[in-house]
Amino acid sequence: MRAQHGTINRVAASLAPPDTETCLETLHALAPRVRLAELRLDLMKSFDLERLVAESPVPLIITCRPPREGGRFAGSEAERLRVLARAIELGCAYVDIEWDSVTKLGLGARGRRRLIVSRHWNDSMPESFLPAYEELRETAAVVKLVGRAARAGEVLPVFELLSRADGPVVALAMGAHGQLTRLAAPAFEHCFLTYARRRLRPSPRPAS
Question: Per residue in 104-159, pLDDT tens?
């Protein structure tokens, strides 16, 4: 492990505001403090994707998670993939695509450079993330693997991957026992980012 400086540059805000206006207001408030912002479209009541990408003050990760991976997108898989493909066309920084859908986007090498391929174990933690990492590393620019830790010792696969990866990764553990992984991940050389939600408070917007 090699310690990294500028930890704030590895923090992404994960947002699910109800609508476009609220989302843009929040993005402007958080902009000085985050490197990227993830928008969970599947958790928003409505969104104008064109406006969000065009008017965001920070680069965006667009995520539209299906129920099978813990999300709430209510439309069809074809509709969901169209949203993600459109996000790439509009110029968002990254699209987060599930491991079992990544080939369905039909992107070439250039498009894959803007993909985060993710897999979630919502009810458990695998013994190791390394097999999934090896399987997915050639499909996208970043591999994101997340499991649920029921005990403190179950976070070990996260740190194993962070210490052994040789390319950009996001590795985290869900649950109360996983909080340490969010805090410690940026200390590893190949950590692409960590996510902040409730603990990251917007800075007051300057008076106009």
Answer: 988 877 778 999 999 999 999 999 999 999 999 999 999 999 999 999 999 999 99
Token pair listed for 106: 């039909």
Q: What is the widest separation between alpha-carbon atoms in the chain?
A: 53
The reply to whether 53 falls in a domain is: yes
Query: Which neighbouring-strand residues pair with 171?
Result: 145
What span, in angstroms and rounded, lies between the C-alpha atoms of 96 and 115?
Answer: 6
Specify the residue for token string 């994101």.
Answer: 144
Residues 159, 120, 43, CA angle at the centre, nearest 5°? Answer: 125
Domain hosting residue 44, numbered range: 7-196
Q: Specify the 3-state DSSP secondary structure of 182.
A: helix
Q: What is the pTM of this model?
A: 0.88
* Distance (Å, whole) CA 36 – CA 61: 7
Nearest to 115 by CA among 172, 167, 161, 61: 61
| Distances, alpha carbon 85 to alpha carbons 44, 59, 114, 168, in Å | 18, 17, 11, 22
Question: How far is Cα 58 from Cα 96, in angstroms, rounded to an integer?
Answer: 16
Q: 142 phi and psi, to 5 degrees?
A: -135, 140
DSSP 191: B
Among all chains, which residue has been given the structure tokens 């097999």?
A: 131
CATH number at residue 18: 3.20.20.70
The answer to whether 193 and 167 have CB atoms below 8 angstroms apart is no
201 Cβ neighbours under 8 A, 6+ residues apart: none
Residue 201 lies in a domain: no
